[in-house]
Amino acid sequence: MQAAALKTAAQVRAERRATVRYSPDPLVPVLFAHRDAATPTAGLLADVSLGGCRIVAPPTARPELHWGDPFRIVVSYSESSRAAGVEGLRLAAHVVRLVADANSLVVHCQFSIDGHDGDWSRLVGWIARMGQGEGTLR
C-alpha cells in the first residue's frame, strides 16, 4: 500500500495544484530556510498536500529564499503535531512562489521526493489520515 501511495504521489507530482489540500487546525509550526542558511526561520504550515504546502511567517522573516531555491522544512514541536505523529517530520522542497507584504511572508513550495534527507513516507501517511478525517490536528 505504501509503495502504491508513493508511486501515485510521483505521478501526481507533475501538477501540484491538482492534489487535495488540507488545512490543519491549529496550524503546524515549522522551521525552514535555504539549505545553506545558518539559522532557520519559524513559520506555520497553513495547508499541505502531496504536491506541496504553504508556509506563513512573520513579515520580518529572513529565510534567504528566492524563486526556485531548494530548502528544508522541519515540523517543530507542538501538542497537536505530536498528537498527529508528525513532530520532527523533515521534508525537502523548492520555492514556487514568494509573497511578502506588511502582514506576512508566504512561501508556496513543491515537495521534492528525491533525496535521502526527506521523510516522504510519514508525509504520505499523515495526509492519508487527514483524508480519512483521522489525522486532522486538534
Structural features:
3 helices; 6-stranded antiparallel beta barrel; 138 residues; 6 strands; Thrombin, subunit H; alpha+beta; globular
How much strand?
A: 25-35%
The helix-and-strand class reads alpha+beta
The CATH superfamily label reads: predicted glycosyltransferase like domains
The first-to-last residue Cα distance is: 27 Å
In short:
This protein is of the alpha+beta class and 138 residues long. The chain is built from three helices and six strands; from the N terminus they run H-E-E-E-E-H-E-E-H.
Describe this structure in words.
Helix 1 (2-12) packs across helix 3. By secondary structure, the chain is of the alpha+beta class. It has a single domain (2-131), classed as Thrombin, subunit H, CATH 2.40.10. A 6-stranded antiparallel β-barrel has the order 1-2-3-6-5-4. The chain has helices at residues 2-12, 79-84, 120-131, and strands at residues 28-34, 41-48, 52-57, 70-75, 90-100, 105-111. The model has no long low-confidence stretch (mean pLDDT 83). The protein contains 3 helices and 6 strands. It is globular, with a radius of gyration of 14 Å.
Sequence-ordered SSE layout with sheet pairings:
Blueprint (H helix, E strand, L loop, with lengths): L1 H11 L15 E7 L6 E8 L3 E6 L12 E6 L3 H6 L5 E11 L4 E7 L8 H12 L7
Antiparallel strand pairs: 1-2, 1-4, 2-3, 3-6, 4-5, 5-6
Helix pairs in contact: 1-3
